[in-house]
Specification:
- By secondary structure, this protein is an alpha+beta fold.
- About 40% of the residues lie in helices and about 30% in strands.
- A 3-stranded antiparallel sheet has the order 3-4-5, with helices on one face. A two-stranded antiparallel sheet has the order 1-2.
- It starts with a strand and ends with a helix.
- The relative contact order is 0.12.
- The model has no long low-confidence stretch (mean pLDDT about 85).
Length: about 100
């Protein structure tokens, strides 16, 4: 995981992976989510979708929702850092600054 601090509060981003299955109805379905916290000595935990008859306040359903939240958070961090920052700011801004410095006034 990634450790950071925001004031006095620790912030942790857990590593997570998701296994998907493309079914015959052309729907992409999650099969399992792996959540791993590397700084601890715990083994990675695997979460599976709850059965259809599970209630929304059951342990299986709430654990699955928490695993989905970890996965979506990690996915958004990858998008914010790699896709947005690198492609929009780190690359494009260098050309903007170089152009500004080299064009006659």
């Amino acid at each position: 995981g990634i450790n950071a601090e925001y004031g006095d509060l620790p912030m942790v981003v857990c590593l997570s992976d998701c296994l998907f299955y493309w079914d015959r109805q052309d729907v992409l379905r999650p099969i399992a989510i792996r959540v791993e916290y590397k700084n601890g000595k715990e083994a990675p935990s695997f979460w599976f979708p709850p059965p259809k008859e599970a209630a929304e306040d059951s342990h299986e359903y709430l654990s699955w929702m928490l695993a989905k939240m970890y996965f979506n958070s990690a996915n958004m961090q990858i998008h914010a850092i790699l896709t947005h920052f690198v492609k929009a700011h780190a690359v494009v801004e260098t050309f903007a600054v170089a152009t500004y410095r080299n064009l006659p006034r």
